[in-house]
Amino acid sequence: MNSHKRIDFLAGQHRSPGEVRESAGIERSCIESVNEKVNRRFSGSSRKHHLLIYFWLLAVVALVVIASRYHASSRQFFGIAGSTEKTISFQYPVEIVNISVAEGSKVERGEFMLEVKRFDLAASLSIVEDEITEIMARKNELIASTAAEIRRLEADKLAAQSELDVQLAKVETQLALNAHWKSDKPNLQTTEQLSPENLLAIKHRGLQQQKIHSATSFQATIDNLRQQLNSSERPADAKIEVLKKRKQELKRQAASLKVESDFSGSVGSVMFTAGEQVPKFSPILTLQGGSTSFVKAYIHEAVLNEVRVGQKVWIESLSPEIKKVVIPGRVESLGNRIVEYPERLKRSPLVSAWGREVMIELEENNELLLSEKVSVLLDQPESWIDVLPGLLRSKVLNNPIIESVQARNGSDGVRIHKIIATGLQAAAADSIEASGVVWDPVTNVYWMISDEDSYLYQLNAQGEIVQRLEINGLRIDDAESISIDGDCLYISASLSFNKAGVLKNRRRKLVRLQREKKGWVYQQEVDLYKALQTLTHSDSLDARTKSFITMATQEASIDIEAHQVRDNVLYLGFKSPLNSGSESVILRIDDLASLFSGLPVRAEIWRSFQLDDGDGSNTMTISDMIFFGDKIYLTGVDTYATNSSSGLWELSGDRQRAALMLSFPGYKAEGIAINRQTREAKIVFDGGGKGGSHFAQASIH
Question: Is residue 126 domain-shared with residue 198, that is, in the same domain?
């Protein structure tokens, strides 16, 4: 203000030229100062405007990031890792005989833990045995009385025939005397109709007819009794068979009174001691797994997740460690109701949270801690490549076609794929040597066996192993064939001698499993090799069958690669030996129930035929078979070729030569199963331990 006043004051006075120049300089200086202040003010305002724009852009980016993270959260949920826990109890009263474990002790799979006894079981077994003995005694008494009656009738028949023969001899003698007397007196006249000769002739014919009728009557009665004596369908036999099955079931229950550990872990609580009486359904002890085997997770009710049973997920540890633990898992079940979250999974103990339960199965021997809080990811984390690279190679989407095979009849061929596995079994996928497969019509899945272990592998339609079952009590080597009949699953060993020329006990078995929910439990086994040896001493075998079985057992050339069970009849397909005509043989054994009970059975060579390679230049041997309608579908292998070679054949009617449908050069077909709903055959190939096994699917018309 002082400067402006000064300028106005000078402007109102008369000034000299020097003063005017000085005043102009001052004015220019003031104007420049004012312009500088104005420019500085406008420059600061522009910078603030740009900063505001930057802040808005950052806010938009932050909102996008938050929105994307919120969207991704629907691909992730949380849970708590747990382990398998089993409570040992019985559905009937028992008494503790022995408990070999203590609370907190470690146990291994298959280790003995507990033995109990049932008084009612022993009494029931004794009653059944007494009933069998009583019925057998009545049966033997009936057989003896029937045999005695036959002998009496035969004696009566002989006596009656002898008496009639004596009477006939008298009549014949009288006729001879009359003829002689008449010849001496030719002039003697008698009435023709009442002559002694005519009367004696009539009597002679009557005695002859009486003799024939008597013999026929006696023989009919004797034949009827003999038929009853030799009948195999007596009422007593049916009752004995029922009682023997009941006895076997009671013995099986008695064997189950010795409890072994189903898995490795530790003993939790022990509620009783030796000598104590235990009421039915009362817990005796608890067993906990040694490592986490499942995750119980929760999906919030406000979040939409695309989770399904059988889906593969990834479990990430939330422990504050430098190296995160990430393992694969599989969704085992989804809850059908909304429940409240556990306290540990709530964001705040004061705020309730509700969601849907999800049970996830984990691989064995993982690194998760018991009761550890984990995150469940529906998408594979990038860091998982560094943690488990081998499991990435086992994804179903990366199951390429190995080779295409053209059908012999000119129809569409089949494609050969590699059998792969989910993360739970991927590490051992390449070591599986597929030896047999069967379709389960109840659960609509395939069950596969390997000749290198005793596991059951669940196989889906895409050729992926989704589950590996270890059956408690199933101990078998060189398992080569598998079949299903109703609620029973049968696995047969090859019965073949090993390279050292020894036939071990585990290679001699035919094992029966019983269905339990969606899985199987061990029920019974039989020494099939011993049963075949016993048949060679049976009088019920025809000469051809006895010669074949004797050759197979005595020459140690036996190798059974296929079997089927249908209507209580066992069919065995022999890879070796061939019969005298170089044909493959299928042996039929009647009454499988009697075979498992150790009772005598009948056997016969049911079919014999050739499996050639199409042009008749080479003969292959059976590796598996399956009945479908009135036809038999067989896989066979060339045991003498340098490179593996096999095929698929169809056999119908009484033909002695099977029709070749498909050839698989370079592959060893070991098993065949047919889905009776889709009429598709699944064929599995043994990789010989080199790069895993393979499978193919073919339509059956």
Answer: yes
